[in-house]
Amino acid sequence: MSFNTAKPSSLLAPYIKQYWAIENTLQPGDVHQQRIVPTGLLELSFYLADRPQSDAPSRSPAESTVLSGQQNRAYDLLVSGSLDLFSITFQPQGAMMFFDLPLDELCDQTIPLSLLDKPWVDQVEAELFEASNFFARVAVIETALRELLIENHRIHDASRIGNSIQLINLSKGMIEIDRLASKACLSRKQFERVFQSCIGTSPKRFLRTVRFQHALFLRQHNQGDRLTDLAYACGYYDQSHMIHDFRALSGMSPSKYFRECEPESDYFV
Length: 269
Description:
This protein is α+β, with helices and mostly antiparallel strands. It is built from nine helices and nine strands.
């Protein structure tokens, strides 16, 4: 199995978190099950070989290039055969700069990108197939995304929501929605509407996901911490509050999740 990551150029860094790719071929009959939990990030994925299946029908389109929206719950991917995946992980506010659609319509959905721009998808897929290695693919997608950014560039609400994301990141999700709205010079109702359209989920749900991801990050780097200490460090009222959120977002209690899954944060890297 090969796994690669790369950071975007300085031009795209405000909107793209990273590029990553994985290649693996399983033995005939073998199936790998991967639990996918909410990350707070949207992804554009190119499946250049077999497509994995999901236990969530809304996450299993047949097409090879798909845009995945915000998650509010976990699902499982079932991988078999030959996997060749190249993926773009957007910053929370990044996807709005490339795709002209209300991102809240993608919540808990994975859609074929060809529904939005089939000529662009066809060209990029062909160039990715022809690319000789991971870094050649990064060069292909950088060029394609720059063109989209110029073509679709929109500044309306981008700076306002970007500043809100910075406050959320600095607080690790431990900030009141009223304060975010005030800093954005919007009423709470206006802020919630704009945020949901630009980020793809409500501020309340996004904050819950960020706190969950922070818990994964702390556990990843401090395996010996007690769950009670972890709960307070991540802004939960108590351990039962953290257990409730873990079950809602991962389908497991914290102890079961840490026992069966690697505690790695995609948001805080």
